[in-house]
Amino acid sequence: MTTTPQKATDEQPSVGDAAERPRLTPAQRLHLDVYGFVLLENVLTQHEIARIKDALYRLKAEPDLAARGVYVNSRSAHFLSIGHLVEYDQALLDYAAHPALVPLVEELVGGRVRLEESEAIINRRDPEAPDEPGPASGSRNRVQPLGFHTGARHGWGTYSADHHFHCLFVKTLAYLTDVGPDDGGTAVIPGSHRLGWPEQDIIDAAREDDRLIHQVEASAGSVLLFAESLVHSSTAVRGDRERAVMICGYTPPMMRVWPGNEPSPEFVASLPEHQRPLLGGGDSWPWGR
User: Fold this and answer.
1) For residues 184 and 236, is the Cβ–Cβ distance under 8 A?
2) TM segments (predicted)?
3) Phi and psi of 183, rounded to 5°?
4) Alpha-carbon span 198 to 207, nearest angstrom
5) What's the predicted TM-score (pTM) here?
6) One-character DSSP codes across 214-228
7) Is 35 helix (H, G, I), strand (E, B) or coil?
8) Start-to-end C-alpha separation, the chain
9) What are the pLDDT tens digits along the chain (289 aa)?
10) What CA–CA distance (Å, rounded) separates 21 from 101?
11) Torsion sign over Cα 119, 234, 3, 11
12) What is the DSSP letter of 237?
């Protein structure tokens, strides 16, 4: 299921007082509560997509990413996964602090947030991968998850308040290219965000019946909002198109960033005052909710 907010324009929206802040629609909130994710369509403009892609492809061409303050999770001819991006280019910071997204993240977390990580993936089909056999008889899809995982677990990383589900670690994943069934879209196990089962038991059970696994398809400019207690995975690219995504993680401000994503004090000090808490976090446990 996808839900569509007001279509984006080439002017980035501004966030004013609480009455003007974007909010999840009832349908979007229900989708998050029930399934643990929701696809927000037409969030980014073509101009925003182009700026983000330009920055990421410049990073891809960099011979020494560490010299740019960027860490590498994986780098090969067909797969690049990198992180700590917001200090590299204004376009990447603008996405992390996007005024159409941060308020929705805060609804799912349940209060004010800090940026916990910023990462990106650019990948295409592995030329060394063997040809994939056709789908099994009776199979409804051909999803090939590369590694199911979570970043939080139901119980210690989630809670309920005001009749809604909340997670202390939430991500937005921006699709910078169209992603169809053969283009490596994110796979999720809907509803797993609220299960106390051992993670591997959830994965094993879902693999027995692929109707329990959903692969997201999206147009460029759409954003997947999801709880990190949701079991999810990248999938294999089987087509000829290259996939590019940018991912930002958010937590309450008193929690630590993912190792390697610590912002430099000089960078935080250079930001407009209203952005400093998002990047710098806070040391106090009283939480603005």
Assistant:
1) yes
2) none
3) -110, 20
4) 15
5) 0.90
6) EE--B-TT-EEEEET
7) helix
8) 29
9) 444 334 344 444 434 445 588 999 999 999 999 999 999 999 999 999 999 999 999 999 999 999 999 999 999 989 999 999 999 999 999 999 999 999 999 999 999 999 999 999 999 998 887 765 544 444 445 678 889 999 999 999 999 999 999 999 999 999 999 999 999 999 999 999 999 999 999 999 999 998 999 999 999 999 999 999 999 998 889 999 999 999 999 999 999 999 999 999 999 999 999 999 999 998 777 787 7
10) 10
11) positive
12) B
Hey, which residues does 165 pair with through a beta bridge?
A: 160
Residues 6+ apart with CB under 8 A from 283: 254
The DSSP call for residue 212 is G
Strand spans (E) along 137-277: 158-161, 164-167, 170-175, 187-188, 214-215, 223-227, 232-233, 243-251
Domain boundaries, the chain: 20-123+141-280
Type of residue numbered 57 = Y
**Tokens linked to 218:** 């999206």
Position 15: which residue type?
A: V
CB atoms within 10 A of CB 148: 21
As given in the structure block, the two tokens for residue 189 are 């196990």
